[in-house]
Amino acid sequence: MKLEKSKALFEEAQKYLVKGVNSPVRYFKPYPFFVQKAKDCYLFDVDGNKYIDYCLAYGPMVLGHANEAIINAVKEQLELGTAYGCPTEKEIILAKEVINRVPCAEMVRFVNSGTEATMSAIRLARGVTGRKKIIKFDGAYHGAHDYVLVKSGSGALTHGTPNSPGIPEETTKNTILVPFNDEEAIEKVIKDNKDEIACLIVEPVMGNVGCILPKEGYLKFLREITEENGIILIFDEVITGFRLAKGGAQEYYGVIPDLATLGKILGGGFPIGAIVGKKEIMEQMSPSGPIYQAGTFNGNPVSITAGIETLKQLDDKFYKETTKTAEKLANCLREVSERYNIPAKVYNIASMFQIYFNDKEVLNYEIAKQSDTERFMKYFWNLLENGVFVPPSQFECCFTSIKHNDEVVEKTMNAIEEAFKNLE
Ligand SMILES: Cc1ncc(COP(=O)(O)O)c(C=O)c1O
Ligand SMILES: N[C@H](C=O)CCC(=O)O
């Protein structure tokens, strides 16, 4: 395939930007294509190639790229100013929308990214409980801050640095790691650290080590054991929020955490994050309480505007259609991998799906890591050559949007067939 201009831009970019990119997941060998524009479910690169996009900027673009209502609302907002350092009515509108949808949300603090949201939620939990330790799952990714970059998923795992150097062991010695979907491991950790654990943070569906679903009853178990032990339960819904259902994974699974973190979809393609939760906990945050949280761009009017326009469009049809599309593609992957006799496991839920080149059921990070990552990258390139872009890692997740219609799905299924023809 023709990627000459991308290659030249990558060579140029490397002189000024670390490995030519601004987030590690965007780099893949030998070099990534450079994007010129995006519309609906398509990405267009500088070399004139058009791709059906299942990366969707790692999740936010569920309405497709350049959604007209969002663009129009944002244009209007741009004329009115882009940052005030003062409160606005739109923040109330979006907060109310979030509270109406997300079961645990009684109050909201808007921030600028998922990373900031989880960092602040953990600080809040520590401040409220007066305890230091936190529980995190192996392979979970909660952003790029120091408390959680241990046995981390996403780009950290893809690039072979799940434990980042530069983080003092004093910082992470209070981060206790446990395997996902394992009740006994949690019971043991809580017993061994009685009255010392501030919070347990979990991605209800693990979307940064592929797509790992919780076993039936597992999230309910986490709710019960944390409640019994005075541990704050944080659902990191940066991926699952507004995706699994209007109220996210907590609505889908009927398990209500104390706090949740949101991002991605909430900003409609603009930077955002949010911490939401029970009033009595949230009010411990500054300035009503002593636990400090702040940001020049918190509640930025442009992101807030895009968020309001996005949530308006997430109706029942949206959930039905995006789920149906992910299901169709997952079934296609199951059928094709079986027909070509390639060991694989495929998982899907709502608008998320992923194939693992692995013959075992993928229940946790250790099993996910045993997947054939070389074969995954062959599959990735074969798809790309056939006009389909999925995230370039076994340890990311694919997403569907409302713009992936039947015709697009048909084209994707043909590309999958072609990709498997040349996969050993
Ligand atoms: C579950 C989860 N939490 C937190 C983050 C961090 O969000 P951000 O990249 O917006 O900082 C991400 C993604 O990056 C995520 O997938
Ligand atoms: N997997 C990450 C988020 O979900 C990818 C985003 C990034 O790190 O750039």
Automatic annotation (TrEMBL):
NCBIfam families: hemL, PRK00062.1. Belongs to the class-III pyridoxal-phosphate-dependent aminotransferase family. HemL subfamily. One of its GO terms (molecular function) is transaminase activity. The lineage of its organism: Archaea, Methanobacteriati, Methanobacteriota, Methanomada group, Methanococci. This is Glutamate-1-semialdehyde 2,1-aminomutase. It catalyses: (S)-4-amino-5-oxopentanoate = 5-aminolevulinate. Its EC number is 5.4.3.8. It is an enzyme of class 5 (isomerase). GO terms for cellular component: cytoplasm. GO terms for biological process: protoporphyrinogen IX biosynthetic process.
